[in-house]
Design a protein that fits this description.
single chain, mainly alpha, two-stranded antiparallel ribbon, about 55% helix, flat, Topo_IA_cen, DNA binding
């Protein structure tokens, strides 16, 4: 039975554990709830879903994980070599979530650096 978070990542974590434990050929039931209220949890256990219905959710997460790894490892190497060739030192990491998040932080820091105080009246 799978009872991890009801999302792609929860499904991926559970399936990875199932696969690594050698139980991938067994029938899987899925607890799919969106609330931690006692009544909802009981209802969820009374209505377990067929695990096969969530296989595509697992494959989505697995595919994203592989793509993140391939893109991250290759672009990190490429970007690092490019930056080092242009005189910079260190490793320059690239990632699907990390890179745009760091850019948002950079943009905010630039806004703060160029902030001009103005009187404000209500």
């Amino acid at each position: 039975m799978i009872a991890t978070d009801s999302d792609r990542e929860g499904e991926a974590i559970a399936r990875l554990i199932i696969n690594l434990s050698g139980n991938s050929r067994k029938t899987i039931k899925r607890l799919w709830i969106n609330s931690l209220e006692t009544s909802e949890i009981k209802k969820g256990f009374q209505n377990l879903k067929d695990g096969q219905a969530f296989y595509s959710t697992y494959k989505e997460a697995e595919t994203r994980q592989i793509a993140d790894w391939l893109v991250g490892i290759n672009l990190t190497r490429l970007y690092t070599l490019y930056m080092q060739k242009n005189g910079m030192r260190g490793v320059f990491s690239v990632g699907r979530v990390q890179t745009p998040t760091l850019f948002l932080i950079y943009q905010r820091n630039e806004e703060i650096k160029h902030f001009v105080s103005k009187p404000f009246y209500v």
